[in-house]
Amino acid sequence: MTSVKQIGIWMDHANAHLIEYTKETGDTVIIPSGLSREDESLAAGKGEKTLHHKQQQHEAAFYKKLAEVIGHYQGVLLFGPTDAKLELFNFLKKDHHFDHIQIEVKQADKMTGNQQHAFVREHFQ
Q1: In the prediction, which pLDDT does 45 show?
Q2: pTM (2 decimals)?
């Protein structure tokens, strides 16, 4: 019998907190989006169009990095306070490699690490 690999990802536009569903409390892996305040201020100095382009590049790279992780799971819960989870969901739906993965999206507020783990555990139980 193979075990179903499931993961919860609490995210906003700055970070993604990856929480693998296990019976015992696991670790949280944090992946930053990659766009620092310094990058934003440098791009803003060159114009709004440049800033927007730079943000889009970093966002696409952030979602690609998350997609690489998600590809190893069969069940995924995307949750968090911003639209970043919906943007990632739409990004994944465009790629047919993710058609076999059950992906759910839920709205959630800012949470502590313990609250995130409890949310994931409750969802997958």
Answers
A1: 63
A2: 0.84
